């Protein structure tokens, strides 16, 4: 898949208007807190399906106080144009090559992986974040995984509506449960395949970052993810689900567990620095596995260097460069990127009169 050749922003968060061209090297972005660095890479993250690296809404992306709507446009190597935007009060739309497209189609154009500070608590907070992390990894390997998750969520919302309304007609449930089971089986298969790919990529590489042993857990009485097993699970759980007003079991309740492989220690029990190292290891493994099959993904690493010593920073930069990945790294000062040398182009972001501006180093 191609890299970004240029990016144009219009009324997106702190950016009124900007156009940036890239030469294919790693992009080191520095600036003071609040200057607009994360907003810039968040815009890039929206060139993939979903709500971006901060899970914002279309309304939140709009620059204030104007509230005029926003637009992100990118030109890819080879000339393909990708665009996403939203008018006030509307959901975001996507255009690829000048033609309207579904969000899931973005996954066929670009593969994006990201690591942001909010993910530092991935192993110690709720399972939802870990499922989302794993599903994004699965989507990077198989873009159709996004369609399965959307289909599952849509059918589950409709089933939950029936449960809340105390509808007892089995025919209504059977149709929706069939859709959930078909999509859920695809989700579980995609997750297991992603775990296998991540662990294989970790085990096959010599790296300065620790390997994680990953596993997918299932809810109590849950099946191993087959279509037939999920149908049975939903049918048997209707009475209990109706009492709760929601679907209690299924792929939406699975969890990802991680162990520091060398120590045999659960990631949740590791220190903050160790958890960060494990996260970086998983992102690099994901990128490594994708690069083994085709072009490497685009990496968005927000403030990733802030908690690494010079040796670990150098190791991270060496691995990114060896992958041949286009990467966008942010940090508060240029000294965090000294180990990159000529392997990176450098951009300073400044906040001036309430707007973000680019200054090339």
What does this structure look like?
The protein has 361 residues and is of the alpha/beta class. It folds into 2 domains: 1-111 and 297-361, Rossmann fold; 120-294, RecF/RecN/SMC, N-terminal domain (Glutathione S-transferase Yfyf (Class Pi), Chain A, domain 2). Helix content is 37%, strand content 23%. It has 9 helices and 15 strands. The chain has helices at 37-45, 58-61, 127-141, 145-164, 170-203, 227-236, 238-244, 272-293, 310-323; strands at 4-12, 15-21, 26-30, 70-76, 81-86, 93-96, 99-101, 112-115, 212-217, 255-260, 265-266, 298-301, 327-331, 344-352, 355-360. The strands form 3 sheets. The protein has a 6-stranded antiparallel β-sheet with strand order 2-1-4-5-6-7. A 6-stranded mixed β-sheet has the order 8-12-13-3-14-15, with helices on both faces. The protein is globular and about 65 Å long. The protein starts with a strand and ends with a strand.
């Amino acid at each position: 898949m191609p890299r970004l050749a240029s990016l144009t922003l219009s009324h997106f968060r702190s950016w009124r208007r900007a156009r940036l061209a890239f030469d294919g090297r790693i992009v080191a972005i520095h600036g003071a807190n609040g200057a607009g660095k994360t907003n810039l890479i968040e815009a890039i993250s929206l060139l993939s399906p979903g709500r971006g690296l901060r899970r914002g809404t279309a309304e939140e992306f709009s620059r204030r106080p104007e509230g005029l709507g926003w637009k992100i446009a990118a030109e890819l190597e080879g000339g393909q144009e990708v665009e996403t935007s939203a008018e006030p009060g509307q959901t975001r739309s996507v255009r690829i090559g000048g033609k309207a497209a579904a969000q899931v189609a973005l996954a066929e154009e670009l593969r994006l992986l990201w690591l942001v500070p909010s993910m530092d608590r991935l192993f110690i907070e709720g399972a939802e974040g870990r499922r989302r992390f794993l599903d994004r990894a699965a989507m990077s390997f198989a873009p159709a995984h996004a369609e399965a998750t959307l289909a599952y969520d849509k059918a589950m919302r409709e089933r939950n509506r029936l449960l809340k309304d105390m509808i007892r007609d089995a025919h209504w449930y059977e149709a929706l449960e069939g859709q959930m089971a078909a999509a859920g089986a695809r989700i579980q298969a995609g997750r297991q395949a992603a775990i296998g790919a991540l662990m294989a990529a970790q085990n096959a590489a010599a790296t300065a970052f620790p390997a994680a042993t990953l596993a997918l857990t299932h809810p109590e009485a849950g099946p191993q993810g087959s279509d037939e097993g999920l149908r049975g699970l939903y049918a048997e759980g209707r009475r209990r689900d109706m009492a709760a007003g929601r679907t209690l079991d299924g792929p939406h309740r699975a969890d990802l567990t991680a162990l520091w492989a060398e120590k045999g220690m659960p990631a949740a029990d590791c220190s903050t620095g160790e958890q960060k190292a494990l996260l970086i290891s998983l992102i690099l493994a994901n990128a490594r596995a994708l690069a083994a099959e085709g072009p490497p993904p685009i990496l968005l690493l927000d403030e990733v260097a802030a908690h690494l010593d010079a040796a670990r920073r150098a190791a991270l930069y060496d691995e990114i460069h060896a992958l041949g990945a286009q990467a966008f790294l942010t940090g508060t000062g240029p000294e965090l990127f000294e180990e990159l040398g000529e392997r990176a182009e450098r951009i300073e972001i400044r906040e001036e009169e309430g707007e973000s501006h680019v200054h090339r180093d």
